[in-house]
C-alpha cells in the first residue's frame, strides 16, 4: 500500500500550520456550529464521536465536522484532500467492528452525516423513496409507513443507526429472509468521491444495465470508496397482518426440516426464521425474566409448571406476514406447525394469539444480547454458512472448542434461515471471562473461523470488517480478492483520503 | 485510455510470428478440437462465432478457443496476455448489443465457454445450485425443476443463452418483478482475471459482508473485468400453481392503478405484469394469428365477433404463482380483476381457465417481437423509468416523435411492473423502413433517450451496452461514473486483455 504510506508521510510532514489552515477553511465553510474541536479530556460530546458504543475502540480525532448538504460534504472532502488529511465517515455510530472510529493519530477528521436527515421524496406508485444519508433508520421506516408502505430493513439499533451507515455496511437484521439485506433494498445512491466530486447515481429503477455496478461497489465498502450522501430505497406493500410462532426442536436437522416446510407453505409470507439454542434462552430466563415471558408461557402450557419446565435444545421463532387477513396467515402458519409436529420435526409449538404474544416472542429473541452481557464477557462471532451446513458447523465447533477449552460454553442463536449464526464463546468457570478473552480470543476465533471457512462460510455475515476483522480477512480471503480490493481502492482513492486502514486488507 | 492504446500498438508491432506462436501454444494446451481457425469465407461454423444472431455486427476473429475447464480458461488468458492478444468472452452468443462479437481486426480471440456446461451441485436445503458458466439457461432451469425447485430467470433465448452470459450481462426477462434480474439470483462466482488468475468467489451464502462486492462488479461487466467460469445460483421453492389474466385498460394510469391493486392483493404471488399497447397486439393479430388466439378469444367473448373486435388501447398480462392450490391463486387474481372493473380501472378482463389458455396468453406477449419483424424494420429501444413516470414517458415520446417524424408509428410493450418498456419506432409509410433507419436512427434515439433521461430513466434497462450504446453511455452518464468505470477497468485489466473497446465509455 505504498500510496497510502506516502500519503501518511506527507501528512506528518505538513505539521500544524497546515492543520490550522484546514480547520480555518472548514470553519468558514461550515460555520462554527458544524465544526467540533476537542475542549479537553472530559469533552463528552467530542469523545462520543471517537469511541465506539461498546467501548472497544477509542480513537483520537483532529475534529468532527457535521456538514448540512451534499455540497458541504464535497467541499469538506476537497479541503481535506488538499491538506492531506484523511476522513472517517460516520452515521449513527452503532457499528460493531470499529469501522467508524478514527485512528489514534489525532490527525483524522470524523465526518458525521447526522445533520443530513431529511426524507426527500416518497414515490408510492414506484414503491421507492429518496432520503438523505443521515436519516435514522426508524425515521425511514416511519416515513414509509406513513405512506401506507413498508421499508423492511429492521435491526436492533434502528432507533439510532442511519440509513447511510446501513448501506455503507450492508446491514442485515431480522427480515433478510424475505426482503434481503440493505444492498437489496437500495435502488440508487448519491456519493462524494475521494476527490470531492459528487456521483449522481440516485436512480429509482428496478432495472438499469448501463455499466459497472457502482452502487453495489459502494454498498458495504465501509466509507473507503465514497461518502454516501443520499439513497433511493425500495419499498414494499405493507403487510396487513403479522404473526409468529415458537417451536421446540430436538436437533438442528429438525430446524432445517421445519424451515423447508415453512417455505413450502408460506413462500414469501415467511419473513423470519430465527433459532435459539438452549443456553441463550436459559440465560434470558435467568437474567431478564420479563423479556422471557413468552418462553415461560409456552413451556408452562406444555408442562404445567413454569419453573420446572425444561428449555428445549432448540427454540425456533417463525415470523410470517401477509397482505391477507390475520386469520389467513395464522391458518397457514398453523398448518406448518401441525404438519411439523406430525412429521416429528417439532416437539412443541405455540402460535401467537395476540399482538402482545407476538411481541413477547420477539422480545425473547431480542433480549439475548442483553442476557449475554449480564452473564459475562464472550468471544463473539457473526459467521455464515450455507444453511445445509449449519448442523455440521455447530457440531464441529462445539466439539473443537470443548477439546481446546474444556468446560467452555457457547451461546448460539441467530438468523438460521439466512445461514447466519451468532456463535459466542464463554470461557470455563475456572477462569474469569476477561482473562479468557485476553488469553484465548485469537485461538477461539481461529477454531470457529477455520470450521466456517471449511464449510464454505464467511467470518462476517452481517457485521462487516472495519478494524476488528481486517487481519482475519487478509489471511483468509483468496489472494485475488485482496489484490482486487487493493487495486480498486488505489484506483478510486489513491491518496487514501477516505477511511484509510479500514476494511481493505 | 492510454494503456489500451499502448496495448493495441504493442499487438500490431508484434506481427505474425508471435501470433503463430500463440496459436501453437493454444493448440498444445487445448488440443486441435478446441481451437477453431477460419478455413475460408464460407466457413459457417467459424462465422457463427464472429457474427451476432441478428446480423447487425460482423467481426473477424483470429481464432475461436473452446476450453473445457477453469484451468484451461486461466491458461488461455495467460497465454493471450503474454502475447498481447485480447479476448472476447462468449456464452450462447444471443446478446442484442454486440458485446460478444470480436472487432474487425482479425487479431482477437473469441473464448467460448460452451463446453463448460456441467451442473456441479444442487443443495436443496440451502436452495442453491453450482453450475459451470456454459450451462444453457434452460438446462439450469431443468436441473432446478428436477430437484423440485425453481430457478426463476426466464427469457426468450433461454434455449440457447448460457448462464455465464446471463450473469455477464445481468439478464432480465419475464419474472423480474418477483425474483429480480440475474444479479439478484447469483450468490457467488468463479472468474478468471485479466492476468489469468482464478478468483474463487463461489460461495453459496445469503449474507457475506467481507469486503467490496466483487461479485456484483463482475455481474453486468460484459466480460471486460473477468471471464465468469462458474456460478452459485439462488433457487426458490417451486410454485404449485400458476395462472394469468388479460386485462383491457384505457390508459397507462389505469394500468398503474391495476398494478398497485394486484400488488396489494397478490404481494409476492404477483410474478409478472406485462403491458402491450394497441399496435403490437394488432400486429400480432395480423401477422401471427395463431399466437394471437388468446387476444381473439377474449375480445370475442366481450364483443361477440372476433373479426370486428377492437383492440383495446392497453392490454395487460398479469402472471401469478403460488405455493397454494390453483383454485386459491385463481380466486385471488379474480378478486383483483373484479375490484379493478368495479373501480373503473379495467374495461374488460379474462382469467385463464386452463393451462392451454395460460400458455396462449403468454404466446401473445412473446409473439410481439416476431410480429414486429414481419411488419418491418424499427428503431428499437429498451428504456426504463420509474413506474410512476411511465405515462409521462409514453405521452412525451409519442408527441415528440410525431412532431419530428409525422406519420411515424410506435410499438410499445414490455415489463411495465419493472418500469421497463421496449419502445420501438417505425418510420412513416412514405419512406422505406431501411431508409428511415439509416437516416433517422440517431435522431430517434436522441428524442427517446432525452425523455427517458429527463424522467430519471435509463437508456438500457436489460439489454446492456456492448458496442451498440457505448457512445450514448459516454454522452449521458455522469462524468464521475465514466471516470470510475475507466479507473476500475484500468486497475483490473491495465493491458486491455478482456473485451477491450466494449461497455466502458
Report strand % of chain A: 15-25%
Mean pLDDT of chain A: 94
Q: Please report the number of helical segments of chain A.
A: 16
Q: Major sheet of chain A, described briefly?
A: 7 strands, antiparallel
| Coarse morphology of chain A | globular
What is the number of E strands of chain A?
A: 18
**Structural class of chain A, please?**
alpha+beta
Main sheet: strand order of chain A: 15-12-14-13-17-18-16
Determine the most extensive contact between two protein chains. Answer: A-B, 90 and 89 residues
Question: Can you give the helix content of chain A as a percent range?
Answer: 40-55%
Distance between the termini of chain A: 10 Å
Radius of gyration of chain A: 24 Å
Oligomer state of the chains in this structure: homodimer
Low-pLDDT stretches of chain A: 7-11
Word description of this protein:
- The structure is a homodimer of 505-residue chains.
- The first copy, chain A, has 505 residues and is of the alpha+beta class.
- Helices cover 41% and strands 19% of the residues of chain A.
- Chain A is built from 16 helices and 18 strands.
- In chain A, the strands form 4 sheets. Chain A has a 7-stranded antiparallel beta sheet, sandwiched between helices. In chain A, strands 5-6-10-8-9 form a 5-stranded antiparallel beta sheet, sandwiched between helices.
- In chain A, a hairpin with a 4-residue loop joins strand 5 (119-123) and strand 6.
- The longest helix of chain A is centred in the first third of the chain and has 29 residues, at 2-30.
- The relative contact order of chain A is 0.12.
- Mean pLDDT of chain A is 94; it is low at 7-11.
- Chains A and B meet through strand 9, helix 7, helix 8 and helix 16 of A and strand 9, helix 7, helix 8 and helix 16 of B.
Amino acid at each position: 500500500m505504498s500510496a497510502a504510506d506516502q500519503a501518511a508521510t506527507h501528512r506528518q510532514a505538513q505539521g500544524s500550520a497546515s492543520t490550522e489552515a484546514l480547520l480555518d477553511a472548514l470553519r468558514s465553510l461550515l460555520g462554527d456550529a458544524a465544526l467540533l474541536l476537542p475542549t479537553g479530556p472530559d469533552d463528552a460530546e467530542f469523545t462520543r464521536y471517537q469511541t465506539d458504543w461498546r467501548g472497544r475502540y477509542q480513537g483520537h480525532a483532529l475534529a468532527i465536522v457535521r456538514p448540512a448538504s451534499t455540497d458541504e460534504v464535497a467541499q469538506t472532502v476537497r479541503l481535506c484532500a488538499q491538506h492531506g488529511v484523511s476522513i472517517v465517515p460516520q452515521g449513527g455510530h452503532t457499528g460493531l467492528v470499529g469501522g467508524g472510529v478514527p485512528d489514534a493519530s489525532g490527525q483524522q477528521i470524523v465526518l458525521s452525516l447526522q445533520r443530513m436527515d431529511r426524507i426527500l421524496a416518497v414515490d408510492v406508485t414506484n414503491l421507492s423513496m429518496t432520503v438523505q444519508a443521515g436519516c435514522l433508520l426508524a425515521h425511514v421506516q416511519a416515513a414509509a409507513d406513513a405512506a401506507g408502505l413498508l421499508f423492511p430493513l429492521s435491526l436492533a439499533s434502528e432507533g439510532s443507526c442511519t440509513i447511510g451507515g446501513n448501506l455503507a455496511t450492508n446491514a442485515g437484521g431480522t427480515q433478510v429472509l424475505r426482503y434481503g439485506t440493505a444492498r437489496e433494498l437500495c435502488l440508487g445512491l448519491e456519493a462524494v468521491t475521494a476527490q470531492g466530486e459528487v456521483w449522481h447515481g440516485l436512480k429509482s429503477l428496478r432495472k438499469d444495465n448501463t455499466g459497472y455496478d457502482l452502487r453495489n461497489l459502494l454498498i458495504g465498502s465501509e466509507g473507503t470508496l465514497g461518502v454516501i450522501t443520499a439513497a433511493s430505497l425500495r419499498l414494499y406493500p405493507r403487510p396487513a397482518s403479522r404473526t409468529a410462532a415458537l417451536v421446540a426442536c430436538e436437533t438442528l436437522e429438525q430446524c432445517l426440516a421445519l424451515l423447508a416446510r415453512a417455505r413450502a407453505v408460506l413462500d414469501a409470507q415467511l419473513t423470519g426464521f430465527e433459532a435459539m439454542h438452549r443456553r441463550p434462552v436459559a440465560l434470558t430466563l435467568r437474567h431478564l425474566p420479563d423479556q422471557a415471558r413468552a418462553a415461560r408461557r409456552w413451556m408452562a402450557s406444555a408442562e404445567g409448571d413454569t419453573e420446572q419446565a425444561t428449555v428445549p435444545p432448540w427454540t425456533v421463532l417463525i415470523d410470517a406476514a401477509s397482505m391477507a387477513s390475520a386469520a389467513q396467515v395464522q391458518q397457514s402458519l398453523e398448518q406448518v406447525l401441525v404438519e411439523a409436529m406430525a412429521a416429528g420435526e417439532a416437539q412443541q409449538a405455540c402460535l401467537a394469539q395476540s399482538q402482545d404474544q407476538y411481541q413477547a416472542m420477539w422480545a425473547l429473541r431480542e433480549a439475548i444480547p442483553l442476557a449475554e452481557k449480564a452473564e459475562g464477557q464472550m468471544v463473539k462471532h457473526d459467521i455464515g454458512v450455507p444453511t445445509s451446513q449449519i448442523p455440521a458447523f455447530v457440531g464441529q465447533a462445539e466439539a473443537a472448542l470443548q477439546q481446546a477449552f474444556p468446560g467452555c460454553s457457547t451461546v448460539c442463536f441467530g438468523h438460521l434461515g439466512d445461514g447466519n449464526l451468532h456463535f459466542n464463546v464463554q470461557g470455563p468457570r475456572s477462569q474469569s471471562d476477561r482473562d479468557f478473552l485476553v488469553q484465548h480470543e485469537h485461538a477461539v476465533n481461529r477454531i470457529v473461523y477455520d470450521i466456517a471457512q471449511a464449510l464454505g462460510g464467511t467470518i462476517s455475515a452481517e457485521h462487516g470488517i472495519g478494524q476488528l476483522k481486517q487481519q482475519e480477512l487478509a489471511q483468509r480471503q483468496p489472494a485475488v480478492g485482496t489484490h482486487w480490493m487493493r487495486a480498486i481502492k488505489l484506483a478510486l482513492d489513491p491518496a487514501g483520503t477516505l477511511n484509510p486502514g479500514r476494511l481493505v486488507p
